[in-house]
Structure formats: C-alpha cells, structure tokens
C-alpha cells in the first residue's frame, strides 16, 4: 500500500503538564509528512482528525482505505480538505481531473470512492490534508486564493502583521465539520495567533511551511496558565487539543495552514487569553 497512517491517542491536560520534551514531540508533532510516492500521516483521537501529506514523485498515488476506518474506501464516512504547498498538480476525483495550483485548496465530500494524486510536470507535488468524519455528502469543490475569505490582522509594530485566507469555511464552501485556511505572515512579522485563545468546542492542527532550512518556529501549546513549546521546522505539523492554546513565533516570517474539526462551525468561537495572562 502507498498509505501509512499512525494512531495517536488523546491526552489529559494534567498529564500533559508532566510530559518531558521528547514525549510532547512524540505525541503531538508530525515530523516527516512528505515521503516519496506515499500518503503519510496521523489518525488523531482528538475529534478523529486525520492529518498528513501526499507526495507522488514518479507515479500516481491513490487514496486507499486504512485499517483504522474499517471502511471499504477512505471517504465512505469522511470528508477531506487538501491544500497544495508544492508545484501545480492534477488530482482525479471519481473520474474528474482537477488541476490545483500552489496554495489552492480542494474539498472532497463523503461518498467519493476514487481519488488519485499525480506527480507534477515540473517541481514537487506536495499536498497537505486534513480529513474529518462526515454525516452527509457535499460536492467536490476547488477553492482558489481569489475565492477565499480574506482578513488582514495585526501590525508590524507587534510583529504579527498577517493575512488570513479562509479556504474551507462555511462562508466559502459547504462542509460537514472540517474547516481549513492559510495564514501568511508579512516580512518582519513572526508571531501567529496572538493574542492566543482556546476553543473547547473543537481541536486544531497547524502545518508550517515557507520556512528556509535555517529557520524554525517555536509552537506554543498547553493550557493558558501552564504552557509548553515545540521547536518545528519547515513542512512539519502539530496537533492541538481543544484545551490547548495554539500559537507560535519564528526566526523569520512563514506561512501556516490551520485545520479544525469538532462541535461547531463558528470561526469566531474563541475564548481569548490576554498575553499578560499566559504562563
């Protein structure tokens, strides 16, 4: 098979506060997302979100079912969101061929049986995806950057001037519970999601990219009064439970993809934490 998905179990916040550095990395960090001619990732018990990467190099890669799903095909009871972080490529969805440019998104709904990812004609095909359980079927749809709902927040003075592109949100495309978007920091800005927040109604996953090899991001997580951090490199992802903040600061500007699944679809549902209250 060309698909390999690990299972990661949920953690209690009181247990998390006692984890050493290596255990935090093992439970929450996804280091090697892009493996040649493979679909790789993690099946998280946090709202049963699957997070991973797709990297066809010299042959097509099919979205096959996995043992965790106990289903005849991957999307029998699931939806999937895909964002292209590499070269222009083609994806076949039940016989329909869809071209996806860099930083464009594709939503594929419940019930689609055959999905195949093709190598790019030039450059690397690098596709990041999130998949969540789905209760009904919505149509496949490509979302360009022009289709996205765009918000610019922060300031250079506070090192967090950024543009948020809401790609797979209910104001742009109909989904069951999955939401995804992309945040690009302006040159000179390094902080994301500041002020920090939590939302007990849904978990989140972050994927960092557009980082040069010599640069890193320190991603902060944990309860607001008891935080920890994970040092992350380009093309790595992190799982954030509903009780955890999800914020970061890098040694340069960068781009990250956020994905959410859980109780509601309200993007603005955030329990804000003042920076002075963080511990």
Automatic annotation (TrEMBL):
Catalytic activity as recorded in UniProt: 5-dehydro-4-deoxy-D-glucuronate = 3-deoxy-D-glycero-2,5-hexodiulosonate
Name of the protein in its database record: 4-deoxy-L-threo-5-hexosulose-uronate ketol-isomerase
Top-rank lineage group of the source organism: Bacteria
Keywords assigned: Isomerase, Metal-binding, Zinc
Molecular function as annotated in GO: 4-deoxy-L-threo-5-hexosulose-uronate ketol-isomerase activity; zinc ion binding
Native species: Algoriphagus chordae
InterPro entries, per the entry: KduI, KduI/IolB_isomerase, KduI_N, RmlC-like_jellyroll, RmlC_Cupin_sf
HAMAP family recorded: KduI
Family: Belongs to the KduI family.
A Pfam family of this chain: KduI
């Amino acid at each position: 098979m060309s698909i390999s998905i690990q299972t990661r179990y949920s953690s209690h916040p009181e247990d998390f506060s006692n984890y050493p550095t290596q255990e935090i990395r093992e439970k929450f960090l996804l280091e090697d997302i892009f493996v040649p001619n493979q679909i790789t990732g993690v099946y998280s018990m946090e709202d049963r979100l699957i997070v991973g990467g797709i990297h066809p190099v010299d042959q097509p890669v099919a979205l096959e079912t996995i043992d965790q799903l106990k289903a005849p095909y991957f999307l029998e009871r699931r939806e999937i969101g895909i964002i292209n972080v590499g070269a222009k490529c083609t994806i076949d969805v039940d016989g329909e061929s869809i071209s996806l440019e860099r930083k464009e998104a594709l939503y594929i709904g419940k019930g689609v049986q055959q999905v195949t990812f093709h190598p790019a004609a030039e450059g690397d095909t690098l596709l990041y995806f999130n998949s969540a359980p789905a209760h009904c079927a919505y149509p496949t749809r490509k979302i360009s950057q022009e289709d996205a709902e765009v918000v610019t927040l922060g300031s250079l003075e506070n090192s967090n001037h950024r543009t948020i592109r809401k790609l797979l949100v209910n104001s742009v495309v109909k989904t069951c519970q999955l939401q995804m978007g992309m945040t690009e920091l302006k040159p000179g800005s390094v902080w994301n999601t500041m002020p920090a927040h939590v939302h007990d109604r849904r978990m989140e996953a972050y994927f960092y990219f557009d980082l040069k090899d010599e640069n890193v991001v320190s991603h902060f997580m944990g309860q607001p009064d008891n935080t920890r951090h994970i040092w992350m490199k380009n093309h790595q992802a992190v799982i954030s439970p509903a009780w955890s903040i999800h914020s970061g600061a890098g040694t340069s500007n960068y781009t990250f993809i956020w994905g959410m699944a859980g109780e509601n679809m309200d993007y603005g549902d955030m329990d804000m934490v003042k920076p002075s209250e963080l511990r």
